[in-house]
Amino acid sequence: LGSGSSRMLENREEELTTVRVQDPRVQNEGSWNSYVDYKIFLHTNSKAFTAKTSCVRRRYREFVWLRRQLQKNAGLVPVPELPGKSTFFVGSTDEFIEKRRQGLQQFLEKVVQNVVLLSDSRLHLFLQSQLSVPAIEACVQGQGPQTVTEAILHYAMSNCGWVQ
């Protein structure tokens, strides 16, 4: 290999985005409004993302909202499916939570590989900030205190944004 060809290889650094859904936790356990949230860990070298690593917690309901928004903006691009909202489930709660965790991870893995979906700033705020759904909406519409990029960087700079 001449020096020219190795330089070409360097420029073609592959863009890799790893997204993991981990660590399901029951919040408000024992109360009527208990729910499970999941840690979303993202590590990437893609220019599409503002922060190269991030870690947030989201619950299923927020995934449902995200998918609806992506669908609205993606036009004809098919948005991956979420794991079902089965109310009737045979098996233990742990089993159900684990199945859901896998399904949510597969959903996000497909989403972050889709250029059209990646251009939706709601997705970035969902993955890389801990803003609530209404705050994400406000931010995307320019009514929040920060721009999308600022919100993500602000979260990345706060301790919770760094992966422990």
From TrEMBL:
Gene3D superfamilies: Phox-like domain
GO molecular function: phosphatidylinositol phosphate binding
Keywords: Cytoplasm, Endosome, Lipid-binding, Membrane, Protein transport, Transport
Predominant location category: cytoplasm
UniProt-listed SMART domains: PX
Biological processes per GO annotation: intracellular protein transport; vesicle organization
GO terms under cellular component: endosome
Pfam family, one: PX
Membrane topology per record: Peripheral membrane protein
Compartments, record wording: Cytoplasm; Endomembrane system; Endosome
Domain PX, first and last residues per copy: 16-133
Family matches, as InterPro entries: PX_dom, PX_dom_sf, SNX10/11
Protein transport is among the record's keywords: yes
Family per similarity comment: Belongs to the sorting nexin family.
Name of the featured protein: Sorting nexin-11
Source taxonomy: Eukaryota, Metazoa, Chordata, Craniata, Vertebrata
